[in-house]
Amino acid sequence: MDFLRPTGWEEALALKAEHPTAVPIAGGTDVMVEINFDHRRPQQLLDLTRIGELRTWETGEESVRLGAAVPYARIIGQLRTELPGLALAARTVGSPQIRNRGTVGGNLGAASPAGDAHPALLAAGAVVEAGSVRGTRMIPVDSFYTGVKRNALAPDELIRAVHIQRADGPQQFSKVGTRNAMVIAVCAFGLALHPRTRTVRTGIGSAAPTPVRAVAAEEFLAAALEEGRCWDTGRPVPPSAARQFAELASGACSPIDDVRGSAAYRRRAVGVMARRTLDWAWHEYRTDGDGVQQCA
Amino acid sequence: MRVNFTVNGRPQQADDVWEGESLLYVLRERLGLPGSKNACEQGECGSCTVRLDGVPVCACLVAAGQAEGREVVTVEGLAAGGQGELAPVQQAFIDAGAVQCGFCTPGLLVVADDLLAHTPQPSDADIREALSGNLCRCTGYEKILDAVRLAAARAGAGQEG
């Protein structure tokens, strides 16, 4: 095994082009587990921790460009205003030690359907910036996940950053696990209200071969909120609409039975989380958001 | 490969390190520092917690090569004098009866020490959060929480006095 240690981005791309099977490693919270348990013996490890720019972020008007190797602890501490959904999801990652090391770039690279960042990225709206010696590609996160632990990266590409839409309304995240800390999701749900466009976006984790959006549920809810003039008035979401939203979210799942939970349980839990996160987010919209002034 | 880094304030060199090896293995098997414990090897138990450039991490999930040029503090480095005098958090663990089999203790000491360095007067929620990445299968945690409270109280009393 070789340990490749680029100190700059261009050098990393050159090394990845030269060694397409090299496994990138940042926080090591996935890769080292696989190596420790002899599940993986890559010919090369490509250490990204010496590339300073990957640990930085820039906040623009529309989005945050989050370096691929920013650890979850920094997102929780410093980006909860701009990226509230991702910060909530980050709070549920592993333990403090894991959150000090684990990164969103790593979550995307591993592309596990159970990755905690994915539902938040799908709900907020995000684009993955992938680089190679051939140039830069911007891949919408919706089309980034291609299968169980598979993503849209070419063998010579590395994730440089993720461009995540800044929140324009309340965002929520919910995760079911067998305990409160250090737990892989049985299933998870992210929800973002986008009052500016009067849309709702969702993300489901661990209940399909890849992280997915519940598009039918999003479209139904947006129409129901429009029809009830809820955005303007801050009226509560009609209970029948919330129920239907939950059912459609549940219907967007294609889960399996595994050691963590049954498919039926996951479908049911995703529906419950959809309804709950909608309750929480809409409550916040009514009390903190623009709705409050117009709410009689 | 060779790895050069600083451990508990001392420059160290490890030779013949396999590229897939963890920092934990280097500490225990190559540098003779067995304080950091090897248990789950997947970041679940916290027994191998060390500070890497000042940040608590699981040493089992750090590739040895990633430690090159970095500063590591292990449980062996907590007692500043190194002459038998314990760090306040270590003394508090003994006095509160927070040690049973002792396997989880080094990791808990490192995170507790780090917590008190950043938050000298932690709330119970702060303590639980800081210790949430460390498993103990003996104590039920109550004595450990007592120990951290005791260390914080002693530090507070020391400052007032």
UniProtKB/TrEMBL annotation, chain A:
<protein>
    <submittedName>
        <fullName>FAD binding domain-containing protein</fullName>
    </submittedName>
</protein>
<dbReference type="GO" id="GO:0071949">
    <property type="term" value="F:FAD binding"/>
</dbReference>
<feature type="domain" description="FAD-binding PCMH-type">
    <location>
        <begin position="1"/>
        <end position="169"/>
    </location>
</feature>
<dbReference type="InterPro" id="IPR036683">
    <property type="entry name" value="CO_DH_flav_C_dom_sf"/>
</dbReference>
<dbReference type="Pfam" id="PF00941">
    <property type="entry name" value="FAD_binding_5"/>
</dbReference>
<keyword id="KW-0285">Flavoprotein</keyword>
<dbReference type="InterPro" id="IPR016167">
    <property type="entry name" value="FAD-bd_PCMH_sub1"/>
</dbReference>
<dbReference type="InterPro" id="IPR036318">
    <property type="entry name" value="FAD-bd_PCMH-like_sf"/>
</dbReference>
<dbReference type="GO" id="GO:0016491">
    <property type="term" value="F:oxidoreductase activity"/>
</dbReference>
<dbReference type="InterPro" id="IPR005107">
    <property type="entry name" value="CO_DH_flav_C"/>
</dbReference>
<dbReference type="InterPro" id="IPR016169">
    <property type="entry name" value="FAD-bd_PCMH_sub2"/>
</dbReference>
<keyword id="KW-0274">FAD</keyword>
<dbReference type="InterPro" id="IPR051312">
    <property type="entry name" value="Diverse_Substr_Oxidored"/>
</dbReference>
<keyword id="KW-0560">Oxidoreductase</keyword>
<dbReference type="InterPro" id="IPR002346">
    <property type="entry name" value="Mopterin_DH_FAD-bd"/>
</dbReference>
<dbReference type="Pfam" id="PF03450">
    <property type="entry name" value="CO_deh_flav_C"/>
</dbReference>
<dbReference type="InterPro" id="IPR016166">
    <property type="entry name" value="FAD-bd_PCMH"/>
</dbReference>
From TrEMBL, chain B:
<dbReference type="GO" id="GO:0046872">
    <property type="term" value="F:metal ion binding"/>
</dbReference>
<dbReference type="InterPro" id="IPR051452">
    <property type="entry name" value="Diverse_Oxidoreductases"/>
</dbReference>
<feature type="domain" description="2Fe-2S ferredoxin-type">
    <location>
        <begin position="1"/>
        <end position="78"/>
    </location>
</feature>
<dbReference type="InterPro" id="IPR006058">
    <property type="entry name" value="2Fe2S_fd_BS"/>
</dbReference>
<dbReference type="InterPro" id="IPR002888">
    <property type="entry name" value="2Fe-2S-bd"/>
</dbReference>
<keyword id="KW-0001">2Fe-2S</keyword>
<dbReference type="GO" id="GO:0016491">
    <property type="term" value="F:oxidoreductase activity"/>
</dbReference>
<dbReference type="InterPro" id="IPR001041">
    <property type="entry name" value="2Fe-2S_ferredoxin-type"/>
</dbReference>
<protein>
    <submittedName>
        <fullName>(2Fe-2S)-binding protein</fullName>
    </submittedName>
</protein>
<dbReference type="GO" id="GO:0051537">
    <property type="term" value="F:2 iron, 2 sulfur cluster binding"/>
</dbReference>
<dbReference type="Pfam" id="PF01799">
    <property type="entry name" value="Fer2_2"/>
</dbReference>
<keyword id="KW-0408">Iron</keyword>
<dbReference type="InterPro" id="IPR012675">
    <property type="entry name" value="Beta-grasp_dom_sf"/>
</dbReference>
<dbReference type="InterPro" id="IPR036010">
    <property type="entry name" value="2Fe-2S_ferredoxin-like_sf"/>
</dbReference>
<dbReference type="InterPro" id="IPR036884">
    <property type="entry name" value="2Fe-2S-bd_dom_sf"/>
</dbReference>
<keyword id="KW-0560">Oxidoreductase</keyword>
<dbReference type="Pfam" id="PF00111">
    <property type="entry name" value="Fer2"/>
</dbReference>
<keyword id="KW-0411">Iron-sulfur</keyword>
<keyword id="KW-0479">Metal-binding</keyword>
